[in-house]
Amino acid sequence: METSLDKSNGWRRWSRPAILVLTVVGVTVGHMIVPVTRQVPHDLFVRLYYLPIALGGAWFGLWGGLGTAGLIILVYLPHIVLVEHGPLTFGYLLEIPVFLGVGLLTGLIVDRQAQYRRGLEGQAETLARSHRELQEQTRLLLEKEAQLHRADRLSALGQLSAGLAHEIRNPLGAIKGAVEILEEDYPAGHPKAEFYAIILKEVKRLNDVVTNFLNFARPVSMRFVPVDVREVLASLEGLVSGEARAHRVRIFTRFHGGPSLVMADEALLKQAFLNIMLNALEAMPAGGDLAISTRVADPKTVGVMGSDGREEWLEVVFDDTGTGIPEEYQGRVFDPFFTTKKDGTGLGLAITYRIIENHRGIIRVTSQPGKGTTFVITLPVEESGER
Ligand SMILES: Nc1ncnc2c1ncn2[C@@H]1O[C@H](COP(=O)(O)OP(=O)(O)OP(=O)(O)O)[C@@H](O)[C@H]1O
Ligand SMILES: [Mg+2]
């Protein structure tokens, strides 16, 4: 459909040449119908030719100026030669190089100015680009600083809690031993025997929680082998498909074609991805979309994040259309025990963060409350990976 902008561009494209031609025709007609005997008005029409020449140069540069002068010469020369001008003929012929000179000069000046303006525009564009790049670098640096800060907090918290968990586990062992001895006095069938069972069950539960936490705080030993990220993601997609259907969530995958091998502990990498996918499902109680994709990482992003420039990095992106994370919580989701869920432990993303960190990777989150959340994981690609 033709827009009003198209119309005005079309009008502008044709109106200027039309004005030039009409002016040349108008001046020529005037010049021809006023006889040579009325010399002053006759000459005035010759002078009027300079108007379209100057306009042609101003609107279309060098070729506009020369072109208009040429057009004028085409109609002017036969008139001078064919119509009897007497002794004035030579003066009228001298007008021709002046037409060309004026066309040339106006065109050159206008072209030079246009060139100068383009140079300025180019410089302004370069400046704007540098400014955008600077802003992007600043944003990445701030993000990196926040990550370092978070890593600091995590390690302090991890050490503190690991010490605390240890302190809890020892007395728990003693309680369990003592209860087991006392239990012998109350054999099965005794009215108080069930209380011992309760104590033992709860002690075991506490012990499990502490053990799980210690596993988080003290990373388990890892076995790194080349792992294909696409295969891991595809297998996880199958794993959560039932759960996704129950949540009325559609999962889309789009994997890039380049290398996708990373050195990883496959079980841990799966756990890291799975935590993010389960969170996404939980964030879409009324259904939605989860898009999982892989891509080559922008070297600029990774560059600031500490790459030595020799490695290739890939990114795994989890993009959901869930509830989103309120701005004030976005910096806390990776903290251990941060949860907004009634029965959440708040360890899911803390564990994911730790795993990705142990794989020399980076995890970032962006979220728009009410619209959705995006987690991006950047991992170094295994260099010998030919896939
Ligand atoms: N995709 C997401 N959309 C919205 N909020 C999220 C998303 N992922 C994480 N969150 C927020 O981050 C918090 C922490 O997540 P994390 O996985 O660490 O713990 P959790 O899911 O609450 O508990 P757990 O994983 O132990 O069941 C969540 O409680 C939730 O508020
Ligand atoms: Mg979770």
Short characterization:
The protein is an alpha+beta fold and 387 residues long.
Question: What does this 3D model show about the protein?
Answer:
Helices cover 63% and strands 12% of the residues. It is α+β, with helices and mostly antiparallel strands and 387 residues long. A five-stranded mixed sheet has the order 2-4-5-7-6, covered by helices on one side. The longest helix is centred in the middle third of the chain and has 95 residues. It is rod-shaped, with a radius of gyration of 40 Å. The mean pLDDT is 87. The chain binds adenosine-5'-triphosphate and magnesium ion.
What's the count of strands? 7
Q: How many helical stretches? A: 9
CATH class of the largest domain: Alpha Beta
* Helix-residue proportion: 55-70%
CATH topology of the largest domain: Heat Shock Protein 90
Q: Write down the overall geometry.
A: rod-shaped
Radius of gyration, whole Å: 40 Å
Strand order of the largest sheet: 2-4-5-7-6
CATH homology group of the largest domain: Histidine kinase-like ATPase, C-terminal domain
CATH A-level architecture of the largest domain: 2-Layer Sandwich
Order of helices and strands: HHHHHEHEEHEHEHEE
When the domains are counted, the total is 3
Content of β-strand: 5-15%
Ligands, deduplicated: adenosine-5'-triphosphate, magnesium ion
- Return the average pLDDT rounded to an integer: 87
Main sheet characteristics: 5 strands, mixed
Structural class: alpha+beta
Task: Extract low-pLDDT stretches.
Answer: none
